[in-house]
Design brief:
The chain has 267 residues and is an alpha+beta fold. The protein has 2 domains: 152 residues, Beta-clip-like, CATH 2.170.270; 97 residues. Helices cover 44% and strands 14% of the residues. It contains 9 helices and 11 strands. The strands form 4 sheets. It has a 3-stranded mixed sheet, with no helix packed on it. Helix 5 runs antiparallel to helix 6 and helix 8 packs antiparallel against helix 9.
């Protein structure tokens, strides 16, 4: 369907709850960043005519003149976590129709077990509402987010976050979230990691950022640090980690199953 001011977009066909699976799609193509050139263009040329036309209908924000297969791949390729030696990017025709938001109501996850890219609702969504995903790290200030989107996808974001006239407080929180997220990886003491994890969760709540993958990252550090310190926070992190994993990956994902085991230890 047409999204106002954005071209084509994806819209909810039914009411959705947080954690509902919106889409499960096998990639049409897999490719390396360094391989989005001649070999991948040849692979596109070898597709059946109907699939080739679908690929050519996707947005190309990379080529200067006429659309190219390489430009389409550069614009629509999505990173996924694959075993070493396998391609780290995929092209999914349906997922490529999802537009960006700086507070997306959906997020995507690669399911290695079934080889599918899956999209899950991050918050309650009503029928007819546009479904959006993040194209960039959301923990950046407004100006940098806009710059990244213009440089890589040639559009300016006008989502509810970017349209807010008073974004200074949001910028402050998002910059701090990025700083703390980077800092937690550098800290080696469990006490420091636990403190940062708690601060991150508090800030995500204040910012009301729907994407639960960010909270899940904080839960991983918080839970491990709580266990190491034998702190009473471990059950809370385990329960929250499970809830975030369910909303990021669904119930069958390997990571969700790990959080289910961790949570069961405290039930």
């Amino acid at each position: 369907m047409e999204a106002e001011g954005k071209g084509l977009g994806a819209f909810a066909a039914a009411n959705l709850e947080p954690g509902d699976r919106v889409l499960a799609e096998r990639p049409l193509l897999r490719f390396e960043d360094s391989d989005a050139g001649l070999r991948t263009e040849l692979a596109c040329e070898r597709l059946p005519p109907s699939q080739r036309e679908e690929v050519l209908s996707l947005e190309d924000s990379w080529s200067l003149d006429a659309k190219t297969f390489r430009g389409i791949l550069e614009t629509n390729g999505i990173d996924c976590e694959l075993p070493i030696g396998e391609s780290p990017k995929v092209l999914c025709l349906k997922l490529s129709r999802f537009n960006h938001s700086c507070n997306p109501n959906c997020d995507y996850s690669w399911n290695q077990q079934n080889g599918r890219m899956e999209v899950y609702a991050q918050t309650a969504i009503t029928v007819g509402e546009e479904l959006c995903i993040p194209y960039i790290d959301l923990r950046e200030p407004w100006e940098l987010r806009q710059q990244l989107l213009r440089e890589n996808w040639r559009f300016s974001c006008r989502c509810e976050v970017c349209a807010c006239k008073d974004s200074a407080e949001s910028d402050r929180r998002r910059v701090r979230l990025g700083e703390l997220s980077a800092l937690i990886y550098r800290k080696r003491r469990s006490r420091s990691q636990l403190s940062i994890a708690k601060k991150l969760l508090k800030l995500y709540q204040e910012e009301n950022l729907y994407a639960h993958s960010y909270r899940l990252e904080a839960c991983k550090f918080g839970y491990a640090a709580s266990l190491d310190l034998e702190e009473a926070d471990a059950p809370r992190f385990a329960r929250l980690g499970l809830r975030c994993a369910m909303r990021c990956h669904g119930p069958d994902h390997e990571e969700t199953q790990e959080w289910l085991k961790a949570s069961s230890l405290w039930s």
